[in-house]
Design a protein that fits this description.
This protein has 218 residues and is α/β, with parallel strands linked by helices. The protein is built from five helices and seven strands. The chain binds NADP nicotinamide-adenine-dinucleotide phosphate.
Length: 218
Amino acid sequence: MNILIIGGNRGIGLELCRQYATRGARVLATCRNAPGLLRESGAEILDGVDVSSARGIRKLQSGLGKTPLHLLIHNAGKLTRENLDDMDFDRIENQFIVNTLGPLRVIHALYDHLLPKSRIGIVSSRMGSLGDNTSGGMYGYRISKAAVNAAGVSLARDLEPMKIAVALLHPGLVATDMTGGRGIPPSKAASGLIEVMDQLTLANTGRFWHAEGYELPW
Ligand SMILES: NC(=O)c1ccc[n+]([C@@H]2O[C@H](COP(=O)([O-])OP(=O)(O)OC[C@H]3O[C@@H](n4cnc5c(N)ncnc54)[C@H](OP(=O)(O)O)[C@@H]3O)[C@@H](O)[C@H]2O)c1
């Protein structure tokens, strides 16, 4: 089984690589420039893959060659915090470029590597849920994750005839650089996401899942 993890060098992505490799899968993992602990994860490393640039996507395509993919998880993402008193539109735009257009660019570039019964996971966030937004703020992150959810549903519809299923994923609040170390261990989040991906079929494609296994509101 060939598995591609986009953004595998730290945090949740690194744990996904470790756990899938331990299961015996062939794991290919991307990073931008510093593989770090990814070197010891058992994954094959594709470096120079910045999902915000056409150049990064070309690097990904050339690194992959013709490798077929049974599972693709787009994990890479970024978070900055904007509120009404600090509305930095460049930062908001940058999160949209990475968190929304990044997964769309990657999946658009690679969907011909997928096979019938291949699966795609897009690591989104509960922060992108409109129904769950009770605390406001976080403009760029919320917008970018809500938008990637919209893209993910369209991808699920468009890829269904090719028998490819898509899940939008929320890992929980996870102790990584992104949260300043607050939350559950990345290993727990990754094992939950892997369980959700194990259950993904065409019968439940295009839905938004918490890593604990329940559905989230859009
Ligand atoms: N942690 C949480 O509580 C939480 C909650 C909900 C959702 N999420 C989502 O889970 C995913 C992983 O988050 P994390 O907590 O593990 O964060 P993290 O530790 O900050 O890791 C982020 C990963 O994304 C990569 N990345 C960022 N910008 C990129 C770009 N332009 N091109 C390619 N890769 C890029 C980073 O690579 P570099 O090392 O090169 O920067 C790194 O591998 C993200 O999509 C995040 O939004 C996290």
